[in-house]
C-alpha cells in the first residue's frame, strides 16, 4: 500500500509505507511508526519531538534552497548572525553579539566567541567572510539579491567583520537574520560541495542526522551549543506528510506530536478532539498570484489591473479559509509596522471594470490566462474559486499543476506561464521582500522585467536610514507604486495554525509564521 507525497526535488512520486504504518496514519492508531535508523528508534534524555511537516525541503543548504517552506528545517540546524523577536521581528543579537553602522555605508559586526560548528570548525571572522562571499557570488546561490548592497566583506579582527556597502542599507541586520545570515561550516561546504544540500553542517541548537527524501528528516541536539536553554528536546523528527488532513490525523492518533500550516477547517476538528491543542496567530504569509509581467500579455498594466479587479477577495477568504485570515491588498498585513492603510480596497471587486480594461488592452472577447499551481487538495480548491471568479470577468483561466518544487522552479527559474498561485512567506525586513520580488535580477521576478526607476529608487530609499518612521514613509511609496502598476495579485494573509498533543510545552507562534522549536519541551 502507498500514498502520494510531493517530492520537492524530483516532482511527484509515490512513497511506500508498510500496511501497519498506513493504518497508523489513516486510522489514527496510537502506536508510533517503527522508523529505521538509530536516530529514529529511540529517544535520549528530553525525548524526541515528532513533527508532521507539509513539504519536502528544496535543499538543506540555506544558500541554495528556494522554498519558504524550508525554514522550519533550517532553523534548528543554522544559527544566524542576527536573530529576531517572535512578536515584532525586531532585530536581536545572534552569532553577532553586537553591530553598528560606523557610517551610512559601513556595517561592523562583532562576533560571539566560543562558538563552534557541528563538525568542530571554529566560528570566527574568517567563517563569516566565507559564508557571506559564498552567498553573494556562488553560482548556485539563490540569495545573491539579499546581499546586493554589500560591496566587500573584510576581516577586521579575529571576531570582527566589516561590511563595505555600495549604498546605505539599514535593512541589512534583519537580512542577516534570514538565509543570508545562516552560517554553514566552511569545512563542510568545501568537503561536500553541491552535496552540502543534503549534508548540512551549521552551528544551531540541533545538528543534522538524516534526510530520507519525501519521508523524513531528523536532527539531534548539539550539546556544545552556546545557548544551553534552547534545545530542550533531544531531537526533532520531521515526517513529510503533504496532505494536512493526514498530518493532523497522525497527531491525533499519537504517531506525531506536532503539525503546522493547518487550515481553518482543521481547527474545527481540533476543537472537538480531546487529545490535541491548537494555537494560531497573524503572519506575513501571503497567498498571491505572482504575475509574469516581463512578457505578454501581462506586460500590459491594464491586463494586470483587470486580473486584480476580477478577484473577490472577501469571498475568496470566506470560501477558502472560512473567514479566518485577512484580505490582502499589499504584501504586508495590518499588524505590520509598515502597513499602509490608504491602500485598502485599492482593487475593488468589479468584473465589469475588468472586462473594460481587457477591451482597452485589445481583448474585447476576453483573454486566456495560463497559471501554474500545486496538486494538493487545498491548492486545487483555491484554484477552482479563482477560475470561477475570473470567468465572470471574461478571463479564461487554466492551471497547470505539479509538485511545489517542480512548478516553482518552472515559473521562477524558467519563467514558464503567465503566473503562479503560491505564497510569499515573508522576510523579517519588508524592504527585502520588495527587493526580492520586484527588482530586475530578483529570483521571484520570473520575467526579470526592469522595474520603473521610481520603484527602484523607493526601495533603495527605504533602506537608507535607520529611523523607522522615515522608513515607513518610503515603504508606503514602494507599496503605492506596486499597487498602481498591479505587479502582483495578493489574495489573503493566512494565520499560523498549529496543532499538538498536550505533552508539547512551550511552543510560541511568531509573526514570520514559520515554527521555531526553541524552548519547546515534552511534559
From TrEMBL:
Signal peptide: none
Record keywords, A-Z: Signal
Residues in coiled coil: none
Biological processes, Gene Ontology terms: peptide transport
Residue span(s) of domain Solute-binding protein family: 91-440
Family membership: Belongs to the bacterial solute-binding protein 5 family.
Signal recorded as keyword: yes
MF GO annotations: peptide transmembrane transporter activity
Protein name, UniProt field: Peptide ABC transporter
InterPro entries linked: Peptide/Ni-bd, SBP_5, SBP_5_dom, TAT_signal
Superkingdom to which the source organism belongs: Bacteria
Keyword Signal attributed: yes
CDD domains tied to this protein: PBP2_NikA_DppA_OppA_like_9
Species name: Verticiella sediminum
Pfam families in UniProt: SBP_bac_5 (PF00496)
GO cellular component: ATP-binding cassette (ABC) transporter complex; outer membrane-bounded periplasmic space
